[in-house]
Amino acid sequence: MKTALDIIQGCLVWDNHGCMPLRPLDTSFLPQLARCRAAGFDHISLNVGFGDDSIEQHLRMIASFRHWLGQRASDYTLVRTVDDIESARNSGKLAVSFDIEGANAVADQISLVQLYYDLGVRWMLLAYNRNSAAAGGCQDDDCGLTDFGRRLIDEMTRVGMVVCCSHLGSRSAQEVLEYAPGPVIFSHSNPSAVRPHPRNISDALMRACAAKGGVVGINGVGPFLGDNDTRSDTFVRHVDYAVQMIGPQHVALGLDHVFDQAEVDAGMAAMKGLFPPELGYDKGMNFVQPEQLEAIVDGLLRLGYAEGDLRSILGGNLMRIARQVWKEPA
């Protein structure tokens, strides 16, 4: 019988969301990406901006990440095409793409979507906790998908950027799922039936996502898993619930690991609008570590998961979405 390590080493493993410090002149944490490769990950999507971050801030972060990664081409591959991911894996490198958490990255200029895509951004969500010009946030009076949001989805679809509904309010997420022509993802959202929280999503939204051919990525954020509970078994419980609800072909990993804990603590203290204390953020925020990957896979094996289903959850499902949605960059 294959062990968890056998399975990890024998298939594509993709973490669809990780967070490095968003300080363009500070790359001191980027060497920690080596932890992901050592733990068994082959591809990680790094966040380049969120919430109210400006266009300039997003572009400065992308430039900073691209420059650092480009100087280390023997260890990392900047993802342009789907084939780059497998090529990186076969050569022992970590493939890296980018993601954006919120429509403020484009402000009122939808043509920026193409630029972000050309620079490596492969998914974007339309709001971050609070309402944006495109859609309603999960911790706001959800305004629903706007006309601007529909035009934004149209452009994302045209260029090949995956539409993400994490951090959206339930109404907006449902309206995005109804409007978008292709598969939609929840890059890092957990089942609210396991842990009630506005950031988590309902069974109905998970089923609607699966019906579109999409994927729900389970995150490793303590308050969304339990009472700041980041044990591997707790993470496994969320994965298993999602699989039982929508099937192994529609579940993935989006750990949302933040590599600079001090930045998290300072950010929550300074941005109470995004992280209101009454929603449990005052208790702090811990994260599942990349090194827990083997224990997570082992937990799923103990539940009787077949190797083929694990291969899908660990990376195959996200690869399927990429092959369906991504387009060759200019």
Reported CATH architecture: Alpha-Beta Barrel
Q: State the distance separating the first and last CA atoms.
A: 45 Å
In CATH, the topology is named TIM Barrel
Shape: globular
Which regions contain 5 or more consecutive residues with pLDDT less than 50? none
Strand percentage: 5-15%
Question: Structurally, how many domains make up the residues?
Answer: 1
Structural class: alpha/beta
* Total E-strand runs: 10
Q: Helicity range of the residues?
A: 40-55%
Largest sheet, in brief, is: 10 strands, parallel
Number of helices: 13
Instruction: Assign the CATH class.
Output: Alpha Beta
Order of helices and strands: HEHEHEHEHEHEHEHEHHEEHHH
> Rg from C-alpha positions?
18 Å
Name the CATH superfamily assignment.
Answer: Metal-dependent hydrolases
Give the overall pLDDT as a whole number.
Answer: 97
Which helices and strands, and how do they pair?
Elements lengths: L3 H6 L4 E6 L13 H7 L3 E8 L4 H16 L5 E3 L3 H9 L3 E8 L10 H7 L2 E5 L21 H13 L2 E3 L5 H10 L4 E3 L16 H9 L3 E4 L3 H4 L6 H15 L4 E3 L3 E2 L2 H10 L22 H10 L4 H19 L5
Parallel strand pairs: 1-2, 1-10, 2-4, 3-4, 4-5, 5-6, 6-7, 7-8, 8-9
Helix pairs in contact: 10-12
Compact overview of the structure:
By secondary structure, the protein is α/β, with parallel strands linked by helices. It is built from 13 helices and ten strands. Strands 1, 2, 3, 4, 5, 6, 7, 8, 9 and 10 form a ten-stranded parallel sheet that branches.
